[in-house]
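Researcher: I've got a protein sequence and the SMILES for coenzyme A. Could you write out the 3D structure of the bound complex as structure tokens? I'd like something to compare against our soaking experiments later this week.
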Amino acid sequence: MDIRLMTIDDYDKIYAMWMSCRNMGFNDVDDSREGIERFLRRNPTTVFVADDNGTIAGVILGGNDGRRGFIHHMAVAEQYRHQGLGTKLVAACLDALRAEHISKVALLVFKYNDTGNAFWEKQGFTVRDDLNYRNLALRELVRIDT
Ligand SMILES: CC(C)(COP(=O)(O)OP(=O)(O)OC[C@H]1O[C@@H](n2cnc3c(N)ncnc32)[C@H](O)[C@@H]1OP(=O)(O)O)[C@@H](O)C(=O)NCCC(=O)NCCS
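Model: Sure. Here is the predicted complex with coenzyme A in place.
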């Protein structure tokens, strides 16, 4: 298993894998090929895939805005789960964010995603119940909830 940086050539396989995962949230703009290409251009050192001889077994989109790190769409394909692969991808991403001098990392996970929440708890990501998550759409987005 090769943990390596993602390239845009991985996109189709990754997108198919994301669509096979339950309880994740996507949209038609940020998760389009163009959206992911833009994300990779801004974050060339912090997006990783687990590559099993050409099969994408897992992916983590790590990025930063120069101050905070953010993780999106962590996923491991069903047949590769419970083998520590998710943990390895998180470690690669956090090391890369540290190398970018980022000191804190956040992420979002649906409250009803028990697997995701158990996983992130194990990785040391705590829940902040003193904050409200607020956002504003700057354009129309079509949600794709899996
Ligand atoms: C969450 C996910 C990425 C975990 O990947 P993984 O490779 O199976 O994770 P690991 O093998 O590294 O698991 C590490 C720890 O996470 C916890 N964990 C992982 N899957 C779990 C599950 N189904 N139930 C409870 N705890 C779980 C366990 O504590 C596990 O440690 P253990 O193996 O010593 O018990 C994977 O289940 C997945 O892709 N799910 C669908 C997408 C998703 O929900 N992503 C996260 C939200 S964005």
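Model: Residues 21, 23-24, 74-76, 81-87, 109, 113, 115-116, 118-119, 122 surround coenzyme A (CB under 6 Å). The CA atoms of residues 9 and 33 lie 10 Å apart.
Researcher: Great, I'll pass this along to the crystallography team.
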